[in-house]
C-alpha cells in the first residue's frame, strides 16, 4: 500500500508568463526524482474562491466568496486552519497518482499565475518548496508582444494582471521564507550549471548536471508554456538573455517598453534586481533620430480593463452629462445675455439715432454759429471801422466842443451883459409903453370929439 503523499513532496514554480518557466520545467523534469506535467492550474480555483474580487461568474463570485468565508469561520471548533488542512489532503490525493505512476518522489507544479494565490498556497502546503523565477520585465513584455499579441495590440489587455499584479508579487520581500528559492532567467541562460546546482541543493536532491541538456531526452509536447523556442533548442541559449532588445527598432514596441519601464519606476524595477539606467539606455540607443514613437498608443490605454473602461466611460458620460447640463445652462444664460444684448443694441441703435439727430442739430447749430460768427466778425470789422471813425470824430467833436465851449463862454458873457443891459432898459421900455398908451388914448379922444354923439349912453373915455 502506497504511503499518502505529503506536502513536502510538492514543488511550486511561480513566475510571470514568458519568463522561461517552460525551459526551467524541462530541465527540472529531467531529474530522476521530479515529475512534472504541463501546467496543472489545479490550486487556483479552490484558493481564489476565498477572494471577493478579481473573478466574475454567473452565480455571483463575490456572494460565493462571502458565503464560503462565513462557512469556514463558523465550522464548530475548527476554522480556517481546518479548511486548509482538508484542502491539503484533498489535493495531495490528486497529485499522488502522478508520482505513483512515474515512480518519482517529487511533483513539480509549474503554474505561473499561482502568484495570485501564493499566500494561500503557503497556508495549504507549508512544507512545499517554492521556486520563484524572475526575468527582466521588459523582456517579459517583449516576449508577450512577439508570441501572443503580435500585430493585434488589443490583445495586450489580456495580460494586464501579469504586467501589474504579477509584478507586484515579484517586488515582494521573500527573505523571511525558508522554503523559497529565487532563480533568474538570465543567470539560467548564462550559467546553467551553477544555477541548477544551487537549485537542486535547495530541493535537497542530488545534482544532475545532465538535466541541462533537456533536448537529448524524449519528452512530450505540452499544451501550455513556450510553444516554440524550448522545443527548437536542446539546452539554455545565451543569445536569448538580451533578445528582447532586437524589437526596439519597432516604434510601437519601443513605445510600450518605454512606458512600462516608466510605470515600474526606478525603485520598483531595481527591487526585482534589474538595472534601471541600463534598461533606459538600451531603449534610448535604439531610438531613431526622427522617431514616430509618439504616435503609438500608450501602454496604460492598452491595459485598461473592461471595468476600468466602463468606469472611465461612466465618468466620461457623467462629465459629459454635467458638461451638457452646464452647456444648456450656459446656452440659456447666453440666450438671456443675447436677448439683453439685443435690447441693449436696440437701445443703442435708438441712442445712436438720437445721437445722429443731436449731431445733426449740433452740426446745424455749429453751421448757424459759424455763420453767426462770420456775421459777427463782419459786424465787428464794421464796428471797429465805425469805432475808429467815432474815435476820430470824437476827437474832432472834442476839439469842436472845446471851441463851442469857448464860444458858449463868450455867449454866456454876452448874455450876462445883455441881461445887465436889459435891466438898464426895463424902465425905459415901460416909459415908452406908457407913452404909446397915452398916444393911443389921445388919438381916441380926438376921434370922439370930432364925431357927433351917437352913443349918448356912453361915457367919455376920460371919465
TrEMBL record:
<feature type="coiled-coil region">
    <location>
        <begin position="310"/>
        <end position="407"/>
    </location>
</feature>
<protein>
    <submittedName>
        <fullName>Sulfotransferase</fullName>
    </submittedName>
</protein>
<dbReference type="Pfam" id="PF13469">
    <property type="entry name" value="Sulfotransfer_3"/>
</dbReference>
<dbReference type="InterPro" id="IPR027417">
    <property type="entry name" value="P-loop_NTPase"/>
</dbReference>
<keyword id="KW-0808">Transferase</keyword>
<dbReference type="GO" id="GO:0008476">
    <property type="term" value="F:protein-tyrosine sulfotransferase activity"/>
</dbReference>
<keyword id="KW-0175">Coiled coil</keyword>
<dbReference type="InterPro" id="IPR026634">
    <property type="entry name" value="TPST-like"/>
</dbReference>
Amino acid at each position: 500500500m502506497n504511503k499518502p503523499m505529503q506536502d513536502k513532496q510538492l514543488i511550486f514554480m511561480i513566475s510571470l508568463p514568458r519568463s522561461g518557466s517552460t525551459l526551467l520545467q524541462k530541465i527540472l523534469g529531467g531529474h530522476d526524482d521530479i515529475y512534472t506535467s504541463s501546467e496543472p492550474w489545479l490550486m487556483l480555483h479552490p484558493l481564489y474562491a476565498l477572494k471577493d474580487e478579481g473573478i466574475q461568474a454567473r452565480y455571483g463570485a463575490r456572494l460565493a466568496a462571502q458565503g464560503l468565508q462565513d462557512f469556514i469561520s463558523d465550522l464548530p471548533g475548527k476554522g480556517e486552519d481546518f479548511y486548509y488542512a482538508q484542502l491539503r489532503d484533498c489535493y495531495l490525493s490528486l497529485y499522488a497518482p502522478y508520482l505513483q505512476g512515474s515512480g518519482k518522489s517529487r511533483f513539480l507544479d509549474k503554474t505561473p499565475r499561482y502568484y495570485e494565490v501564493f499566500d494561500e498556497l503557503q497556508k495549504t502546503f507549508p512544507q512545499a518548496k517554492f521556486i520563484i523565477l524572475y526575468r527582466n520585465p521588459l523582456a517579459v513584455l517583449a516576449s508577450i508582444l512577439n508570441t501572443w499579441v503580435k500585430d493585434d495590440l488589443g490583445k495586450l489587455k489580456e495580460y494586464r494582471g501579469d504586467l501589474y499584479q504579477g509584478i507586484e508579487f515579484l517586488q515582494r520581500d521573500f527573505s523571511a521564507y525558508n522554503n523559497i528559492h529565487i532563480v533568474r532567467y538570465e543567470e539560467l541562460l548564462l550559467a546553467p550549471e551553477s544555477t541548477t546546482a544551487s537549485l537542486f541543493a535547495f530541493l535537497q536532491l542530488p545534482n544532475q548536471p545532465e538535466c541541462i541538456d533537456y533536448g537529448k531526452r524524449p519528452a512530450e509536447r505540452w499544451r501550455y508554456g513556450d510553444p516554440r523556442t524550448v522545443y527548437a533548442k536542446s539546452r539554455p541559449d545565451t543569445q536569448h538573455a538580451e533578445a528582447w532588445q532586437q524589437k526596439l527598432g519597432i516604434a510601437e514596441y519601443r513605445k510600450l517598453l518605454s512606458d512600462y519601464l516608466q510605470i515600474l519606476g526606478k525603485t520598483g524595477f531595481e527591487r526585482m534586481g534589474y538595472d534601471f539606467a541600463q534598461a533606459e539606455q538600451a531603449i534610448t540607443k535604439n531610438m531613431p533620430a526622427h522617431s514616430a514613437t509618439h504616435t503609438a498608443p500608450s501602454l496604460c490605454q492598452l491595459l485598461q480593463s473592461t471595468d476600468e473602461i466602463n468606469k472611465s466611460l461612466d465618468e466620461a458620460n457623467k462629465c459629459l452629462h454635467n458638461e451638457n447640463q452646464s452647456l444648456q445652462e450656459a446656452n440659456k444664460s447666453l440666450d438671456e445675455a443675447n436677448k439683453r444684448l439685443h435690447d441693449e443694441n436696440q437701445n443703442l441703435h435708438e441712442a445712436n439715432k438720437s445721437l445722429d439727430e443731436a449731431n445733426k442739430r449740433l452740426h446745424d447749430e455749429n453751421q448757424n454759429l459759424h455763420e453767426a460768427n462770420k456775421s459777427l466778425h463782419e459786424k465787428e470789422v464794421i464796428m471797429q471801422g465805425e469805432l475808429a471813425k467815432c474815435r476820430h470824430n470824437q476827437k474832432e467833436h472834442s476839439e469842436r466842443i472845446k471851441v463851442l465851449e469857448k464860444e458858449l463862454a463868450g455867449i454866456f458873457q454876452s448874455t450876462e451883459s445883455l441881461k445887465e443891459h436889459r435891466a438898464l432898459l426895463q424902465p425905459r421900455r415901460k416909459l415908452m409903453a406908457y407913452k404909446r398908451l397915452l398916444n393911443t388914448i389921445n388919438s381916441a379922444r380926438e376921434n370922439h370929439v370930432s364925431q357927433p354923439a351917437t352913443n349918448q349912453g356912453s361915457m367919455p373915455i376920460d371919465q
